[in-house]
Amino acid sequence: MKNNHTYIIGEIGQNHNGSVDLAKLIVDAAARPIHEDLFGLTLKPMDAVKLTKRDLKQELSKTQMDAPYNSLHSFGKTYGEHRAVLELNDEQHYEVYKYAKQLGLDFVETLCATGCLSILKLFTPDKLKVASRDLTNLPLLEALAETKIPIIISTGMAGKQELDNAIDVITKCNSNLSILHCVSQYPTQPQNVNLKTITYLQKNYSQFTIGYSDHTIGIATPTAAVAMGAEIIEKHITLDRKMKGTDQAGSLGIDGINRMVRDIRVMEMSLGKEEIFIEDGVKSSRVKLERSIATKRAIKKGEIISENDIHMLSPGDGFKWADKNVVIGKISLVDIPENEIIYPALIK
Q: HSE (CB half, 13 Å, CA atoms) of 175?
């Protein structure tokens, strides 16, 4: 991981339920600093939020748009009406973008059709995201790549051939590319996660930034992905997992956001460097808990110390057993009681 920092994206998606005000409240949750009370740490919050822009004229067939949508999570009588309610227009996306930037967050935008590029007349997202379903939409990938904005793609519905085709199209004019391992199952069952795809991507696509887009329940999997070297984590976020909407239940609520970001930021601090050494913070414990050469019996002044006279006791501020030859055969300069540490000043 570069600089031991994970780029965490809070995916708002359609969890705003068609409301700019609700979207802003979710942005507030993503921007809130994270505190770890035991060690008194204030940790960096999420790095970015993400919205999704659809062009309904380029979204679904007429049959699908007109199909009745009878669901507890429906916002319209037909699926087209439902999708229209959940769609923010360009100006509303711009409003959420400005709000996120004011709070110090990056803004990532998923554009689902070439018609969605109209938002670029108002603002330039920090990154563009390609939805898993659009990895084979090569005309869209080409149009997004031509913007020169950094691009993130997810592998949720792709095998190697689909991924390679997408990379070939994008990198013809845009090499600033990140690849997220993803499984497009909502929620993703544990046996289907296959986090080892992360290391596969690192080995086979090392020229790109590798991360993980998570659809599991909970926070253990994205945290584990960071331990495996994922440099980007994407996770759905909301204000209340019980709100109306198909993605709400599979998202992180306020407490979940806090716990996931806390655990990832602590994980970053925990990774360290690839070597073995004694940490400064361990030194006091080492003195208290390690063992040193001590007397097995009371030794009188002038006696020569033998191996049968010594054993190991705490504290650990004296000779170690590896140094026993420094003690054996030496003369005691004073009376040393039984079960006391033999320090250098006591022998010659």
A: 3
